[in-house]
Request: fold
Amino acid sequence: MLFGTVLILRLWIAKGFGGNFDSHAFQTTAELTLSGRNVYSATTLYNYSPVWAGVVAVIWTLARSDFRAFVLFLGLLQTLSDSTSAVILMSIARRLGRSAPECRWAALLFFANPISVLASSAHGQFDGLAVLPLLLAILVALDHEGQGEMRHRGWIVGLLSASLLIKHVTIFQPLIFARRTRGRGLPDLMVPIPAIVLVASFVPFASAWRAIWANVVVYATHGAQPGGLASFLNVPDKWRIGFSLLLVATALVAARTGRALELPRSSLILWLSTLTFLPSFGLQYLVWPLAVGCLYPSIGLGFLSAAGALFYSASGSSLGLAWPVRISEMGVWAAVAFWLTSEASRVRAETATWVSRPQESRPQAPGLSSRRR
Reply:
């Protein structure tokens, strides 16, 4: 009943959304793709792999060049993606040993979260679509944890590659699938494969390599819009490479320290770490930790959901609501940093409690990798 109500709300919002700057950028991308032009050399508005260009081209064709229909179809695609992610979250929760009500609650927390709703129905961004195959990869890894069969590893690598090809916001997430506690996970040589697949997707467009570097790579590391850690600290542009190096170092440390955690929780810590130290900022970035975060409800999740909803819904790129209480980008960033800090403290406390108990009376460690004997 609740899922149906939220679905109706999502569709109602999507129907009333008239598009924004990103929607027009996607329209331009679709038209350039359908005309056979190299989208990277023809516009500076496209910042992703060639896959999304093909998707919007198909949707523009289905919309028969009607912009309102195009925007609605994008919203419907994202709503379908989020619905599927909610179902996958229930399966992941079951694999983690949660009760049936807890599984449904995790899925509802994600599907009804205002940030998720606004990103899909009133912004048109597709970060949630990239998260979907990542969740599938986590589910496959949990289902076959410890078995080490190559065909299951192949599925995981394929799903991670699909995630990166949709949108490379998940660029660091393959790190958490590396060999984990007691040797589980992907072999080291398989971890870079998704990134290699992403790079290979640009080969047919290599003649525009300078534009690809400027609009995809540099945009991804520095950000084309103000916001994020770099602008908060007001650092000159020439030093912003330092923030990119800090981001990479943070991702490596987070992935390394999460090796003993449950895979979804390791993903959450990595998402929050990278989002905290990301030089740039975008409304849609708030979607990244939500799905796995809803598997571990906490006050940090609640703070970010509330802060993000206020900030997101007031943006002109979304609903443009005039709330009497406003929140700044710094406030949203602080909510992310608080969630990271509180989640790290929570994991340490749970781990310390588990370790302090006599070995024969220990249940499966909260948040720790299951150990099959």
